[in-house]
Amino acid sequence: MISTKAYSTIQAIDRSAWNDCFPLALEDWDYYVAVENAAIDDFQWRYLALYENGQLLAVAPAFITHYRLDTTVSGIGKRFTQRLERWWPGALRLGLYAIGSPVAEQCHAGVASHVPAARRAALLAQLLAAARRDADAFGIGLLAVKDAPTRDQDWADSCKAAGLHSMPSLPTGLLPLPYGSVDAYLGSLGKSTRKDLRRKLRAPGPQVEWRRNVDDVLPQIMRLYEATLARADLQFERLPAGYFSQVLAQLDQRALCVLYWVDEQLVAFNLVLLDQHRLIDKFFAHDLAHSREHNLYFRSWLTNVDYCIEHKIALYECGQAGYASKLRLGCEFAGNTLFFQHRNRLLDTLLKVVKVFIRPDRSDPAMAAAISETR
């Protein structure tokens, strides 16, 4: 007999039992503890768990928030929806209950190692049903699965059977690094990109510092973060200072912050998660006034590539933004899918129409190209 639980804190679930559902995950139990402790505004955390005879079978993080339907829209489409929001405040915001996390790379829903793979689809279906019941208890009509891997057929089948609709979400950039040096990596790129990066490398660069604690520079980090966020077309959550300090403290050897200094001024930072298999670029922020002179984005990129090659880390996971640059830099892309359904049939039908216009690949040609590579 399978029983279902929904918790408000991940600490209600045993650490080793949770991590057993996600072998080798960097965004593991400790990461979600850090996220909880950071107290990110406008999000309420939920954790779904399935048990059989007292033994954990499957788990998934979830969250409750108010969601802007144009979150993944950029360019002309974004300007239109911003104007609509000014004319009709709240028209694009709905209460949302989503399986996944606003601060994770993909939807984390896992089954315990002792569970046969053949049971996974059925367990995902039960997690979906548990999410629907939990959402109903909070009076929330819109249910979603955020950033399920496109190639995960179990998710696709379970969501389709539950009546959820689908649309492409932001793809994740991946850079395999089977190279012996940065120069060998540069040699794999197109001629113009290779020449441009080598020219940038010859110019004077900032001082680079790798840190496991940034408490003394958090005000400067937050200044850079807020400025970068204000320039972004795509944004979902707003991270407090506690997120950066908590992730570094909770993950210990599996998190680093790379600081970039010019004349004792912090001009950029990059929070990364890492182990012996991959490096995940969680957030990069920079001072626009220094970016062009010091090529901060590309400096950070090549710093991460160099670190991976030096430490024999085979994969650089570089997030869900900047697709035009990532296409030039040799990235591959892992597709993600957003599944959704509103319990109100009229609103559900309306959302099916709206999704045609708010698909992320409608407004960004580079993103459309990245999405097309995942099929």
TrEMBL record:
Signal peptide: none annotated. One of its GO terms (molecular function) is transferase activity. Keywords: Transferase. InterPro entries: Acyl_CoA_acyltransferase, FemAB-like. It comes from the Bacteria. Transmembrane segments: none annotated. Pfam families: FemAB_like. The keyword Hydrolase does not apply. This is GNAT family N-acetyltransferase. It comes from Pseudomonas brenneri.
